[in-house]
Design goal:
Blueprint lengths: L7 E6 L5 H9 L3 E6 L4 E3 L4 E3 L2 H8 L4 E2 L7 H10 L3 E5 L7 H4 L6 E5 L7 E2 L2 H7 L4 E8 L9 E8 L6 H25 L14 E2 L15 H10 L6 E5 L2 E9 L12 E4 L4 E4 L5 E9 L5 E2 H6 L11
Helix pairs in contact: 1-6, 5-7
């Protein structure tokens, strides 16, 4: 049996979603010759420079780590060429790749994308799928081409989405699923047996980057739609409402199917387990956990103990 030599892989990734993929590559027979990740950014009230998850993992394994501000810079191009990479693997890197880079490795560049392409191309596929109420999502290993997430598909794996699951939970599972799927794909690429299936452009949808403005809550929307937004816009920007001028972040909700004639945003029931709020379609939304601005996440039992909300109050 012919044993092909291990691939020399350049890995591109930044946040926690990319960590399982990099971990599996480090455990594989292949060699990660460098990690390319976003520059450290100032975060928090103190605006301290913060390392992302991929950089921390790369440093722990003493892998060469590159953090170019611009991939088009000639200095990065020369550095990348010196890596002599067979393949580039991308998982949530966060920047568009220049055209020269797509063909720089011998086997090109592949991406671990968190959707069942051609649906949800773009920056926020998990969040957009949950906001839309999708009952299934997954990951696709695709070849990177110049157009955004439009390259031929090499492998897919699906995962059901529970009606109360959040983006945080689904992303964690898809990160592991994508890492597992990639390793099998690498062997097919090494052997030259990978089948690349073109995407159907007629079925393509776009998952735009999330914005802070999307956190504002409109209680005139249907209860199910609000519930999906609460699930999908986590961990950022989250869904925000206000009560008596105080800002509240909704963390966990449910749709019990209870009919109400109250005005949207009106509190119709309060007990130690939940707050029931009228929505625009005549159904109620149950709020199970929330966070007053500047405080920790609270159960409804904790909130009610402070007499902070009562039947008839109006959320806006």
């Amino acid at each position: 049996m012919v044993v092909l030599r291990p691939l020399r892989i350049a890995f591109f990734g930044t946040p926690a979603f990319a960590v399982p993929t990099l971990t599996r590559l480090l455990e594989s027979r292949h060699s990660v010759v460098a990690v390319v990740t976003q520059p450290d950014r100032a975060r928090g009230r103190g605006q301290r420079l913060t390392e992302e998850a991929v950089k921390r993992l790369a440093r722990a394994h003493q892998i060469q780590t590159l953090q170019p501000e611009r991939l088009a810079h000639d200095g990065f191009r020369d550095t990348f060429a010196a890596l002599d990479a067979d393949l580039g693997v991308v998982a949530a890197y966060g920047k568009l790749l220049p055209e020269w880079l797509l063909s720089a490795p011998r086997l090109g560049m592949v991406n671990v994308h968190a959707s069942l392409l051609p649906a949800y191309r773009g920056a926020a596929p998990i969040q957009r799928a949950i906001v839309a109420g999708e009952k299934e999502t997954g990951v696709t290993i695709m070849r990177i081409v110049r157009a955004l997430d439009a390259g031929p598909m090499i492998a897919k794996a699906s995962r059901p989405v529970g009606q109360n699951e959040t983006s945080v939970e689904v992303e964690r599972d898809l990160a592991d699923l994508g890492a597992h799927l990639l390793i099998g794909t690498l062997e097919a690429l090494t052997l030259g047996s990978a089948i690349e299936e073109p995407q159907d452009e007629a079925l393509a949808t776009y998952a735009a980057r999330l914005t802070r403005a999307e956190s504002a809550l409109d209680w005139s929307l249907p209860a199910g739609m609000i519930h999906n937004r609460v699930r999908g816009l986590q961990p950022w920007p989250r869904v925000v409402t206000s009560l008596k001028g105080a800002r509240l972040i909704l963390h966990r909700t449910a749709v019990p199917g209870v009919v109400t004639r109250a005005l949207p945003g009106s509190v119709t029931h309060v007990d130690i387990h939940m707050i029931r709020v009228a929505c625009g379609d005549g159904y109620a939304l149950e709020v199970l956990a929330l966070q007053p601005d500047g405080r920790k996440v609270m159960s409804i039992r904790e909130l009610v103990a402070g007499h902070a909300v009562a039947v008839g109050d109006q959320l806006v």
